[in-house]
What does this fold into?
Amino acid sequence: MDSYDYQGAEISLKHSSIEAPLALIRYGKYRLARNYHQAFDAINPYKTEIEELWFQEIAQLQRNNRHALFRDIYFQVVGLFTVGRYAEALILAMSLYENLLQYFVQEKVGLDITSDGTTRERSLNVLQNHDQGRLWQHLRSYQCKNGDRLFLDAVTRELLLAVLQYDSQTTALVPYFQRIEAYYQQRNNVVHQLAGLTKVEDMQEEVLNALKQILSKVLLQEQLSLNPFKTLNHVMTAHLSR
It folds into this structure.
């Protein structure tokens, strides 16, 4: 189970009579696939045999609770790095990073904007009028690390980062976001050019540490220290040994 190969475990036990452990294995498989409704359906018939914790966690994920989703995706990234699936880990980490960028701008800075092209005009209008236009002035004069000015015709990652840098509530988090952003080109190379990765151990350490620092402002310490997939693996092992 330490390899998170729930699919392989399911195949191995497919014809066994141990129903509850097999249901938990399917639950793990679907939860990793972020198919939360099927994960719930996998364990629902075994309410008296399977711990309430797994029903509580999947209920939050089914409701798209953002904090629950952030935690689940973070530990999926941890799991992928742990088993050496670096490219998948990086791609998922960048997806989490983009969602966290948007979350902090919306929830901490208080700007109802998205990177969705369908809301582009409304989002840009919100940016232009925030803080009596001072934010927009900041964005117009902002220089990216490569020396370029921001592209202000759409809500981009760089623009969201600049917003976080402007607001005193989120300025301290910017270096952690920037550490992750530094790996974004590698992510693009993997996705668009089938390229490999370099310095994977450094990448793993820096990306996970940065994500953890950012998430510490959203999640309780207990939530960040308790890996639900490791716990699930221990529970499955205990069920199988009965």
Summary: The longest helix spans residues 86-109.
